[in-house]
Design brief:
The chain is built from 13 helices and 27 strands. It folds into three domains: 4-170, Rossmann fold, CATH 3.40.50.980; 196-417, ANL, N-terminal domain (Rossmann fold, 3-Layer(aba) Sandwich); 422-527, GMP Synthetase, Chain A, domain 3. It has helices at 4-13, 29-45, 61-73, 87-97, 194-208, 225-237, 250-259, 269-277, 301-310, 386-392, 431-439, 475-485, 511-527; strands at 18-21, 26-28, 53-57, 77-80, 101-104, 124-127, 145-148, 174-180, 188-193, 215-218, 240-243, 264-267, 291-294, 315-320, 330-332, 346-347, 351-356, 369-375, 381-382, 393-394, 397-406, 412-417, 422-424, 427-429, 444-454, 458-467, 494-497. By secondary structure, it is an alpha/beta fold. It has a nine-stranded mixed sheet with strand order 2-1-11-10-12-13-14-15-16, with helices on both faces. Strands 7-6-5-3-4-8-9-19 form an eight-stranded mixed sheet, sandwiched between helices. Strands 17, 18, 20, 21 and 22 form a five-stranded antiparallel sheet that branches.
Length: 528
């Protein structure tokens, strides 16, 4: 049995039930499952082999879910791709994962122009949804087959849009690769087996008390680990997902929640900050709203108090996890919210957490150590990166890189991150990724990137830059360069020019001192 079984069972038990509700349309479990079987049958007719990687680059919720489960039904591996991307990033991941087939939409074809022979593994691009009225760009390599929905004709061994049961993934097989930024600056492919995702899904269903009666407001993209877990848990429960995956217009989210009797909302800290900043939020009533679930970065005490003050009758689950753990590792039960402020709670069912110090020994209560996790939800490793895998998957378990302390009652509290990862609006951003792009500008001598605290996003990106002698360059030129090479969430919020960086005694950049001086400068500018 693999996770594709979740959709098959939901469609059998609740065929006419709403699986996905959007602003202007909805899709039943029968329709989603039929779409998945059609995708699976087509992939089989394309001679997909067990374990082949299939990329999904889509933002249509119903089509995405059908494609996701269709890939798994065909025995292939899902590689969900971020839609806020660039041609450069997309090419890098397609090549790293050796993606053979890409399922996408017309709007994202722009990222695939001028690819030439640069993606040797890619042999087919399938455009889901309405066909484009315009011809495909000629710059797409002619050896890559491009088809749309009207041309999809499952044939060969795929009879009646069905796929042989033995082709589908089982619990020991690789199900999905989720790319997440690593400390080296290069995105790492987290390998998750069916068993990993199933263990995490069943644990989350247990502690959130999920049933088929849930009507969950989904604002998180499905291609992220958090959004992926929301999708899997609610399909497994046979629940309904109300989907609007953008916080650009928070009133639309509030309207949908009220119109559709939402029972829950999951989000990162910025999700709740944006909703609470909407002045009309208190005018809405949500009689069915049962809980909020928060993860994707630390929730500030101030924002946590505001959430509870605005929605006193709604339970708040503070959660913690990593992509490497199929999403979730711990949660703070709502009953403990006021008694254990700032805590990430205790391990979820099926997971064991411990704190280990630099010497490799468990720490005592109130001492700081690194969180190490064990459980069936822990990843298989990083795709094609055994060295990076060996650093985090050791005999003790998954070394998370998060430093924390534990109180006498066993509740965990995050202290800091070992790496310098920037968490902005739920995105994990490695400074080196942004630095490398900035350093490509001909006028830049050196660059240092870090995050500074922000009330809405958690952190925003600051770039400190040394210009080359006699080179003309200003903030606008650098921002344009970044815009052309980086997705929007990796764009620097502030650009500061300096003459030199402070150095340590061994010649390394003293980032703490640099960050302190830049924060003082930004604070001074804001006060003007």
């Amino acid at each position: 049995m693999g996770i594709q079984q979740y959709l098959m069972e939901a469609a059998e038990r609740y065929p006419e039930k709403q699986a996905i509700v959007e602003l202007y349309k909805s899709s039943t479990y029968r329709e989603i499952a039929a779409g998945a079987e059609k995708i699976a049958a087509w992939l089989f007719s394309e001679s997909i082999a067990p374990g082949d990687r299939v990329g999904i680059l889509m933002d249509d919720p119903a089509e995405y879910v059908s494609a996701y489960f269709g890939v798994l039904m065909a025995g292939a591996v899902v590689v969900a791709l971020i839609t806020q991307t660039t041609s450069r990033t997309l090419k890098q991941i397609i090549n790293d994962a050796d993606i053979t087939i890409l399922v996408t939409q017309v709007k994202f074809i722009r990222y695939l122009t001028n690819i030439g022979d640069s993606m040797p593994s890619l042999r087919t691009i399938f455009i889901q949804g309405p066909a484009s009225p315009h011809p495909m760009p000629r710059s797409i390599n002619r050896s890559i087959k491009v088809i749309d929905s009207s041309q999809m004709n499952p044939c060969g061994h795929a009879q009646n849009n069905k796929i042989p049961a033995f082709s589908a993934g089982c619990d020991a097989d690789l199900a999905q690769i989720i790319y997440t930024s690593g400390t080296s600056g290069k995105p790492k492919g987290v390998m998750l087996q069916h068993a990993n995702l199933m263990a995490n899904t069943e644990s989350i269903i247990q502690y959130l008390l999920l049933t088929s009666n849930e009507r969950h407001m989904v604002v998180l993209p499905f291609f992220y680990a958090f959004g992926n877990s929301v999708m899997l848990t609610h399909v497994a429960a046979g629940a309904t997902m109300i989907v609007h995956q953008s916080m650009m217009y928070p009133k639309l989210v509030l309207d949908l929640m009220q119109r559709e009797d939402a029972t829950a909302l999951s989000g990162v800290p910025s999700t709740f900050a944006v909703l609470l900043s909407t002045r009309i939020v208190k005018k809405y009533t949500f009689p069915c709203l049962r809980y909020f679930a928060q993860a994707g970065g630390p929730l500030s005490p101030k924002l946590a108090r505001e959430i509870k003050f605005t929605f006193p009758e709604v339970d708040l689950y503070v959660m913690y996890g990593q992509t490497e753990a199929s999403a979730r590792l711990s949660f703070l039960h709502p009953d403990e919210f006021y008694r254990k402020p700032g805590s990430i709670g205790k391990a979820i069912p099926g997971v064991a957490l411990k704190l280990i110090n630099r010497e490799g020994r468990p720490v005592k209560a109130e001492e700081i150590g690194e969180i190490v996790a064990c459980g069936r939800n822990i990843m298989q490793g990083y795709w094609k990166d055994p060295a990076a895998t060996a650093k985090v998957l050791r005999k003790e378990g998954l070394w998370t890189g998060d430093l924390a302390k534990m109180d006498e009652e066993g509740f965990f509290y995050i202290v800091s991150r070992k790496s310098e990862m920037i968490k902005s609006g739920g995105h994990r951003i490695v400074p080196k990724e942004v630095e490398e792009i900035i350093l490509e500008h001909p006028a830049v001598e050196d660059a240092v990137v870090f995050g500074v605290a922000d009330e809405i996003l958690g952190e925003v990106i600051v770039a400190c830059i040394i210009k080359k002698t006699d080179c003309s360059c200003n903030k606008e030129m650098l921002l344009l360069h970044c815009k052309q090479n980086l997705p929007g969430f990796k764009m620097p919020k502030h650009i500061c020019f300096v003459e030199k960086f402070p150095l340590t005694s061994n010649g390394k950049i003293e980032k703490i001192s640099l960050k302190s001086s830049i924060m003082a400068l930004l604070k001074k500018q804001a006060a003007r």
